[in-house]
Write a structure and sequence with these properties.
Layout lengths: L18 H16 L15 E3 L5 E3 L11 H4 L6 E4 L1 H7 L4 H5 L5 E3 L11 E3 L11 E4 L2 E2 L19 E7 L15 E6 L7 E9 L3 E11 L3 E12 L4 E2 L8 E13 L6 E16 L8 H6 L3 E2 L7 E17 L3 E23 L11 E3 H10 L8 H9 L9 E25 L2 E28 L2 E6 L3 E24 L2 E19 L17 E21 L4 E12 L10 E14 L2 E12 L3 E3 L13 E3 L3 E13 L6 E2 L1 E13 L3 E4 L3 E3 L11 E11 L2 E10 L17 E11 L4 E8 L7 E3 L6 E2 L4 E9 L1
Helix pairs in contact: 6-7
């Protein structure tokens, strides 16, 4: 089988580097000079002093430029829903899949796809889950989606296995972390520069050829600190391709270095400048192809031979320059200049043309999802019976010549900008304020130049028919330029804490489409003006107010309330309105000797739910187009419990449990659309489960630590119509871990994922029934350096 376009040379973006990045890097240096250090007696650790956390208490300054919350204790002080997952929490099960990690967060729902969480689909409080495009994703406080405004679908996602913490912020405080404020924000905290010389090395091996290595080391002195890190993750995959020896796994490398220079921390004024450089690459033999229900029931880990050539190749580079400052006790400053570059080439089976002709009518072309559904329903399609379509999937029937379409979904992205924030602490009489004022300039771009080739299935093998024209499957550029400003004041009036805030987003979006290239070479010469096909643009200005309230009934019991305006930017289509909503939450939080208990009810009232067409959505639409979903509603209840059953100081029985109920539905009728389908009032928003439940019981004794977790997810509707073959199965997944300390520096551990080998249909999009990761065993070693 020939795969000519899979490893082609990447093309240059044709855009200059962001000159503002260099300019912004100089801003912190000028600030440090302008505020000369003065002697003081404020002592702190060598990593850079102490600064107040987001809500109260203190946190290491090394975290200040990157963290929203900073600690689990700070999360308890937020006037709204917030969760902090610490390094110790992450080490309980050693997950590398962000989706398995986030199952413990109430209000978060997941649409499973590849079993590894490489390109996760995350929803918060009923937002659409497809490629996590309707929540704000950050790493160390910096936007991390490939093109957060122009093309927010998260085809790049930071490696969860190298993170030291994860923060989830919901409610009114989300106005701090736009542009997507309806559901909230997820901020991933990478390995920080340590206070003293230390490091860690973790090595794993397990089922399906799983190999993982994660090593980091760093140190700090009075004026300098650093950390260097490497993370390698490999697997042969858990699925099997018909008639092929090719694996279905992945090979992902991720490397990070941070360097910090700072003034002595025992001065009244403190300044620190940090450089972060990160590189990641991935090759994974992943596909969008699923199975018919009958084939899934017989062999859920099977993959059709038609998907043998499917492979994703990516590269990601990040440079961030961050400044953190403390001017006396009343003023804190932080600023960042960032640049992210991402390239991806996903060569995968796209569709089928039953006429097998490049000039065939549109009705002869269809997606593999329609083929799978035709087999499920016993219907004919494209002049072939359901039995013949099944034979094509099985590889026992040859297809028409050139019928199979394979596309190199080749895209380049950049995301870059400058952001800064000042925090001022002051009192007005007996009322204390923590006023935050911030500004961000951002620009991003998605550049797609895609080739579609045609193949013929002959005796169960794919044979190249036509290499295809460069640009015949997409030749366009999506761009965005955004200016955001926010003000957020935490006001303490006795037992009452109020947090009013407002965010303003001004966004310019534009798209330029070019004609298909007439050259059959790989030379990506500059796009000529006479090759222009069409342009479109849109401008959106959104004012997003919000207010949260927390009332301390006593030292252990809080009442919380919040309301804010939600927002999601549309595409460059001027005929489509932005997504807006009014979001409410109310509940209580207990934190005392018995443990902690939190219950929060929420209501997201959408004025206009927006659907964005992506290849992963499985909808019959043009990728990038935006569709109006009109009124919709997501309401629910989030519950979180944490306690320790044991009364012994030498024996622990930590228990954590979360339960989320969500009712997400359309509130208006929609005529048959290419994205949402035929929607009636009351139909469910796809992939939002009614009930989710997570419980983890631990045992801690001497050198032993063990955890057992159970996660239940309701069946969901893959489409609003929720007809036959349009639902997933409910899933109950059990994971287990055991850790043993050989010495204070050396630990061994064993992990079991999906212990009962639950194998229901976890997803149906884009192209058929998809499985959950099957039973996996992993053994590992951790060494403290």
């Amino acid at each position: 089988m020939f795969h000519p376009d899979q490893h082609k040379n990447r093309r240059p973006s044709g855009r200059p580097a962001l000159n503002a990045l260099l300019l912004a890097a100089a801003i912190p240096c000028m600030a440090a000079t302008a505020h000369a250090d003065q002697p003081g007696d404020r002592d702190s650790d060598r990593s850079g002093g102490a600064v107040e956390s987001e809500q109260s208490g203190e946190m290491p300054l090394a975290l200040a430029p990157v963290a929203i919350l900073g600690s689990a204790e700070a999360a308890l002080q937020v006037p709204g829903g917030a969760t902090f997952i610490s390094e110790q929490d992450l080490e309980k099960f050693e997950f590398t899949d962000i989706q398995r990690i986030l199952r413990q967060v109430p209000g978060v729902s997941i649409q499973l796809e590849d079993g590894y969480g490489l390109r996760p689909n995350i929803s918060i409080r009923g937002t659409p889950s497809d490629r996590s495009a309707r929540i704000t994703l950050l790493e160390d406080g910096v936007l991390i989606a490939p093109a957060p405004y122009a093309a927010p679908a998260a085809y790049y996602f930071p490696t969860a296995g190298r993170m030291q913490g994860i923060e989830v912020l919901k409610g009114p405080a989300a106005v701090l972390e736009g542009p997507y404020t309806t559901g909230g924000a997820i901020n991933m905290l990478s390995t920080r520069i340590p206070d003293v010389a230390r490091g860690q090395a973790t090595f794993e091996a397990g089922s399906h050829g799983h190999l993982r290595g994660h090593v980091w080391y760093g140190d700090s002195s009075e004026r300098f600190g650093y950390v260097v890190e490497g993370h390698e993750w490999r697997s042969d995959g858990f699925q099997n391709i018909d008639r092929s020896s090719r694996d279905t796994g992945l090979n992902k490398g991720d490397y990070t270095a941070k360097f910090r220079v700072n003034t002595p921390s025992n001065r009244e004024n403190y300044h620190a400048l940090e450089l972060k450089v990160q590189y990641a690459d991935e090759t994974s033999n992943q596909t969008y192809f699923g199975l018919t229900d009958a084939d899934f029931a017989q062999s859920p880990n099977r993959r059709y031979g038609l998907s043998e050539l499917d492979q994703m190749n990516t590269e990601h580079e990040q440079v961030v320059v961050s400044y953190t400052g403390r001017i006396g006790d009343a003023l804190q400053l932080r600023a960042s200049a960032y640049n992210n570059d991402f390239e991806r080439a996903w060569f995968k089976t796209e569709g089928i043309d039953f006429d097998g002709s490049e000039n065939a009518q549109n009705f002869s072309r269809t997606s593999w999802f329609n083929v799978v559904q035709a087999v499920n329903r016993g219907e004919s399609l494209g002049g072939f019976t359901a039995a013949e379509l099944q034979a094509m999937l099985d590889g026992t029937l040859d297809t028409p010549e050139g019928a199979i379409e394979l596309r190199n979904n080749s895209r380049e992205y950049y995301s870059r900008g400058v952001q800064g924030e000042a925090t001022l602490l002051f009192d007005t009489g007996s009322i204390s304020h923590r006023l935050r004022v911030g500004l961000r300039y951002h620009e991003d771009e998605e550049d797609r130049l895609q080739r579609q080739s045609t193949y013929t299935q002959v005796n169960g093998s794919l044979v190249l028919d036509d290499f295809g024209l460069l640009g015949n499957a997409g030749n366009r550029i999506e761009q965005a330029e955004a200016l955001a400003a926010w003000v957020y004041d935490t006001i303490e009036i006795g037992r009452l804490t109020l947090s009013p805030g407002v965010r303003i987003e001004d966004v310019d979006l534009n798209r330029t489409r070019y004609e298909t290239r007439i050259s059959r070479t790989d030379d990506p010469s500059s796009r000529a003006a006479d090759n222009l096909r069409s342009t479109r643009s849109d401008n959106i200005t959104a004012v997003l107010p919000g207010v949260g309230a927390r009332y301390a009934v006593n030292d252990e019991f809080d009442l919380i309330f919040g309301v804010h305006k939600g927002f999601s930017a549309p595409s460059s289509d001027p005929d489509t309105d932005e997504e807006e909503s009014t979001n409410w939450e109310a509940g209580f939080r207990y934190n005392g000797d018995l443990g902690s208990l939190e219950m929060i009810g929420f209501l997201n009232d959408f004025e206009n739910l927006v659907g964005v067409c992506t290849a992963s959505s499985g909808a019959n639409c043009d990728v990038g187009d935006v569709f109006r979903g009109d009124a919709a509603r997501a309401r629910g209840l989030e519950t979180r419990l944490s306690t320790d059953w044991s009364s012994s100081s030498s024996f622990g029985l930590p228990l954590e449990a979360t339960w989320t109920w969500t009712d997400a539905e359309f509130r208006s009728d929609l005529a048959d659309t290419d994205f949402f389908g035929d929607v009636e009032k009351g139909d469910p928003i796809p992939y939002i489960p009614d009930h989710q439940f997570y419980i983890s019981q631990g045992v801690v004794w001497q050198q032993w630590t063990g955890y057992l977790s159970l996660n239940y997810i309701d069946e969901v509707c893959a489409f609003a119509s929720c007809g036959p073959f349009e639902q997933t199965d409910s899933l109950t997944t059990i994971d287990a871990s055991v850790h043993y300390d050989l010495t204070p520096q050396i630990q061994i551990f064993g992990l079991a994922q999906n212990l009962t080998n639950e194998n229901g249909i976890a997803g149906r999009q884009p192209r058929g029934a998809r499985p959950n990761l099957d039973r996996t065993f992993i053994g590992g070693l951790r060494i403290q350096l």
